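Budget justification note: compute hours in this period were largely spent on complex prediction jobs such as the one shown. Inputs:
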Amino acid sequence: MTGDSAYRQAGVDYDVLDAAKRAALAQALATSPLLERRGGRALDASRGQPAFVFELGATRLAFVVEGLGTKSIIARQYEELTGESRFDAVAYDTVAAIVNDLCCVGAAPLVVNAYFATGSGDWYAGERADRLRDGWRRACEAAGATWGGGESPTLPGLVDPAEIELAGAAVGVVPEGIEPILGQDLAAGDEIVFVASSGLHANGASLARKIASGLPEGLLTEIPGGRRFGEALLDPSIVYAELVARVLAAGAGVTYLSHVTGHGMLKLMRTGSPLTYRIGALPPVPPVLTFLAEQAGMSDREAYTTLNMGAGMAVYCRPGQGGAVVREASALGLDALVAGTVEEGPRRVVIEPVDVVLEGEEMVLHLEDGS
Amino acid sequence: MTGDSAYRQAGVDYDVLDAAKRAALAQALATSPLLERRGGRALDASRGQPAFVFELGATRLAFVVEGLGTKSIIARQYEELTGESRFDAVAYDTVAAIVNDLCCVGAAPLVVNAYFATGSGDWYAGERADRLRDGWRRACEAAGATWGGGESPTLPGLVDPAEIELAGAAVGVVPEGIEPILGQDLAAGDEIVFVASSGLHANGASLARKIASGLPEGLLTEIPGGRRFGEALLDPSIVYAELVARVLAAGAGVTYLSHVTGHGMLKLMRTGSPLTYRIGALPPVPPVLTFLAEQAGMSDREAYTTLNMGAGMAVYCRPGQGGAVVREASALGLDALVAGTVEEGPRRVVIEPVDVVLEGEEMVLHLEDGS
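Corresponding output:
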């Protein structure tokens, strides 16, 4: 059995995957039976979701590898301009990118490992290496995860000698009594809660660098509110793992979780389900994102399909439960609002406050652009 | 509690770690208690070992992140010269590097995730992307592991646009009834079995490229035996995970496992134990390594502390058990020999056939060179 039918039988949302991802998935799916030799089982419906889920005996584990992208370049540029190292912030961002994906399937992070690749061993001279390690540890603490270890290769010829590439991996466990969240329970009537982002998070760094390079004062440009562009871009991401653990433990009827990253609100229809996501209220947009979108000449449609625009995580829950999710967020000091609902209808996202409609096929097109 | 005493109390072999690794370990150790909130426990004695080990209830899991280094550059160069894609081989090498580290603590690989970073999305055009995925899958199969998923970011400005950086992560389980292998049982009298490598494996690629660049015919140079240098360099690594699972299941009294990588036989004294490792017999050296060492003008000492020189994995076992390990290897088609013994004495490696003695402090010095 090959092609579409194998995916569908495995519960994979084939429609949302681009060609390269499909090819990798076909190879990966073929290896699923190997887990059974070790007393495990692959949950193939998790393929295409933000983390891979598998069983080992009665334990359900989640596993993810994720990278920061190119945001570390902004930290290097900002350090050169100001002498101020914010490598703690980008290390924090990296762990956040990893564990925020991991917790989307309902898993509590257990262990996070680091992958720091440089083009020259000289990178580690000076304070920034201390900042980097410090930020990584603090993000692990925020996620309630242990920093297990990692690898820090020097890769001349592969990685630019001035830069550091940040990535990592995490293992998590789905708490007993909770089903892994793979979109199976998402249904019309569910409420959608947006939890605030702190700014850029891990996505949009290449665009931000491009914009900065065209500004006379670059990353030192003052943005509305009085902060420097570079400083605001380097606000560390929010780690949502603890919030997810709390809303699951509170029985708030969570049916899906979407980490809003590189494709903005297109990620709201990450599952292939034929459902409409109607957004009636939006969170405040962080000034750095408003500035970035304006400078890039983006329409609302472009901005809301490229940046998180203030919504870092979407929590979907049973009708009437949105308020409980918002309260859990507030208890952790996170801003959140009941933003919309899931409806019967074609697969699309309707963002009423900005009059934007995103059709299902745009999700595929955007992924094919390479994220 | 900080510094040496914290490490020692945790069972970490502090003496073998360089300054940067110590700094990272100090931060990582501080996060160990977090696992207890999730019903787990960090095995801190695994810090500094090839994989991090932790308990979750009665299950002992191992977790590792590892990269290939720069060997993918050789595959790109060889493809440009010959039109022959060997990206399957370097993908295989990457999985081997990951799972061979993982199994050193006694773990059977469960799931392997990929991290493929390119400088340009164009990398994936053409046959090599298929080869890459195919090699990754085949290595997962050789390791008995499921390919869970992964991440394939395009990182302009960080990664060279012509190249692909290969890395990944794996989760494994230590079988019931077996203690994680962290060096605690290693003792005088133990036998050391060397299991053959297939050639370069994942370490020494930068040196090989340097040597090739100085040869008139470069990677197309004919080496003794008649093969091309580049072709031989790209022989895929051996995956030792199945062998390790077998010798553990057979009760062959395994006391330690050392994956012989970047520092060659210095890795034999990876634990900080005050023991002498006396090697009386060496495996045949693959022609590609003999050629590489000769062209580089290496002394035996340099060659045996830089390359694997034909020994890809060292299996330490109780007195009299070496033969059983060799038989298990033979059953899997792997060459192996009882190469030496562990003795009371200062921490050092004595390689009698080539009259080389490696002192304990060289292990630290070499790690400080940045591996």
